[in-house]
Amino acid sequence: MLKRIINIAMSVFVCTCVYGQQPDIAAFLERESSAKDDLSTGKKSSVEVIPGMFTTYRNGDRLYWEVPDSLLEREFAVTTTILAAPARPYRDMEKKFGYAGDMIGPVFFSLRKRGDELWMVDPLNERIVEGTVGTYARIAAQRGNDRLYKALPIRAKSERSSLVEVGSILKDFPLFTLDIVSFDLSIGSRQRDKDHIKEITGYQDRLLFHISRKYGSSSLRLPGQPETPSYIGDWDTGLCIRLLSEQPLEAVTADGGSYFAIGKEVFEGDNPSRRKAFIKRWRLEVRPEDRERYMKGELVEPVQPIIFYIDRNTPEKYINCIVEAVRDWQPAFEQAGFKNAIDACLAPTAEENPEFSIYDSSYPFISWKISGLNNAYGPTPCESRSGEIIACHIGIFSSVLNLVQKWYFVQCGANDPQAWDIVLPDSLQYELIKLVLTHEVGHTLGLEHNFLGSSHYSIEQLRDNEFLNRNGIGTSIMDYVRCNYALRPGDKVDLKNRRVRIGKYDRWAIEWGYRIFPGKDAREREKNRRSWNEKQQQNPWLHFSAGVDVESQMEDLGNDHVAINTQGIENLKYICAQPEAWRVTDKVSLHVLQGRYQSVIQHYTDWVRHVLSHFGGKRLAGLENDNIYLPEKADYNRKALKFVQTYFLQPPVWLFNESLTTPLELNAAKELEHFYEGLMPDLIRSLQKVEESENACEGMLSVDEFLQGVHEGLFTERTDSTSVDSALVDAAKHKIQALYVSSLLKLTETPEKVPSSRLLIAARQALKKINNEKGIERDL
């Protein structure tokens, strides 16, 4: 009996040792290795050890992390980069993502120790609780600061670390796979049993995993599209898990635009919560030994410059101009006090730098993608604590060259006959690629679009080469302004002055966002930044607008839409009259010229819309009233109305002419019909906006004057009956008249949708006038 009691006691003691505390890590791994020994051959299993941020142990299909206690509570960023994508049976060419070089993320996690588990959590950084004295702040502080992703059992311990098994989460948890974007990429479901970790590389502040995954989708039939067959695709991916800085970058409060920003809810004392935004920016810091020199105004090099690495798949002839496009931002950073702050170079080979990897998020990357998509993009992925930009992959699609050559042909073809070449000279291609890439780099630095940047210069200044040498064609490359279409045939302007470049606004924006201002703490530095900026903003060239001001429009140029868009259309008329610009010699030239012709129509449409937007449009009241806008007055609207009569209500038969369209295998009548069907709703909206603003203040254009101007432009008898195009004009004008009358009838037949009886009466009177005029009634 005594022996039985002793045996039971020993069993309890053993169980307590085994299950009451974790074994030593070395002993645990030895036991795991022994369990995998091949007893039939006597071959012993070995554990692969990968040193790094977390020492990683690989034993067959099992993976373990030894997590140091010093890294608990720290934050980690996870990014996944597509290294190779399968050739799928159907791919939407308008999708920007799903190509080799695309980076997904970052997403974030932290590790917390809770008993015998490590909790992988999502750190919730969208709130700031400043003290817990007041009621609101105290209640806000009661909510936890993270949410649980996974609870990982601690399998073994050392004095300062814990061992957890992670092979399953690296394979199955969405945070570490393409599953989080599978819908966006349209890649179907993952075949988990096919996942294969090819390589693991460890560093002191990051871990890299090269992983092959398979995704499969069933056959699918979408409306209007052929059925897509089922397929299984191999996705070669790179996973980077990177330790974030222990001390977040000092956040800069967003100041009404300029930068992309992250929003936070702030609880302070006994005050209700308020929203506060912080800009996105890279970490540029001054070495302690350089700080005094920096504060005196000397240029210093940052601790860690921003270096972009260029995809080795990029055509060799474009590499230098891509480097130049990145370096174009150097003067902006010099204005902020930093020299050599930004640069670019070709991605190194394995022999040149064995540590380089395109899926290592510590290397900003410029990816070249073979695609029919006419686009490029520049993301600003940041960490959620302070808005620090921590990873970046710019994407350039090869077909963006197709887009920019159309821009240059339409906007500069009247001034530069080289634009007529089917393949543009390399010198032109380089400038146009720089136009695109410099803009995208600006986004990756944190800058938003500023559509006011193109609105400051007169038509005379835009033709002055010396002025353009100093200022460029706009104050910001972050606007959607492309090339200088104010130039007339024969104007002598340098090539660099025919396209947009980094301007005064861009240099101010970088200085505002990146300069380190003096102050004993963040609050004082922010005060000094604001004080400095108040003086800077006395210069209207440094203003930001996202679209309220009528001058803040996309694809426009200059401070007078009537004058400059008039010149733009006259330039189009000149180009269309040049047979050499439209000479079709083969299928390639036919395709290119068809695209250029459609681009001519699109630009014409945009330029008419720029002017139409002034009816009922608003302008900023003045420098001292940055939130007050005044309606556009009648004087400028009368100029706009004259433009509409000349360039919209009088059909441009020189553009919709069979002698031009037939060699391009296009139908002139259909193109004209589509043009006016697209623009007529804009004319009716302008009428409605005029009515809304008619009584806003003195000196406004009236509805009657607007309708009379349209009537005169459309229904006045032609005096030139000898023109060879008179028959074409009359036929085209009849179509426009019918479309206009139909639009007015639709307005009057749905009175419940008309905002006022004043507009309803005016529209009916306009129709009655048309009906009563001699010769018009038959046509109606």
Description:
Residues 44-84 form the DUF5118 domain. Keywords: Hydrolase, Metalloprotease, Protease. Residues 424-719 form the EcxA zinc-binding domain. GO terms for molecular function: metallopeptidase activity. The longest helix is centred in the last third of the chain and has 26 residues, at 587-612. This protein has 780 residues and is of the alpha+beta class. Among the domains are: 2-38, no CATH class; 55-244, no CATH class; 297-397, no CATH class; 583-780, no CATH class. α16 packs parallel to α19, α18 (668-693) packs across α20 and α19 (703-715) packs parallel to α21. It is 36% helix and 19% strand. The radius of gyration is 33 Å and the shape is globular. The chain is built from 22 helices and 22 strands.
Q: Which helices and strands occur, and which strands form pairs?
A:
Layout lengths: L1 H19 L4 H11 L12 E3 L4 E5 L2 E7 L6 E10 L18 E12 L2 E7 L3 E4 L4 H7 L4 E12 L3 E5 L1 H6 L9 H4 L3 E2 L5 E8 L2 E12 L13 E13 L17 E8 L5 E6 L11 H5 L10 E5 L5 H12 L2 H6 L6 E5 L18 E5 L6 E2 L15 E5 L2 H13 L13 H19 L20 H7 L32 H11 L7 H15 L24 H16 L10 H26 L5 E5 L2 E7 L2 H16 L8 H4 L6 H26 L9 H13 L10 H24 L7 H16 L3 H4 L1
Parallel strand pairs: 7-14, 16-17, 16-18, 18-20
Antiparallel strand pairs: 1-2, 2-3, 3-9, 4-5, 4-13, 5-6, 6-8, 8-9, 10-12, 11-12, 12-13, 14-15, 19-20, 21-22
Protein name: Zinc-dependent metalloprotease
Organism: Bacteroides zhangwenhongii
GO molecular function, one term: metallopeptidase activity
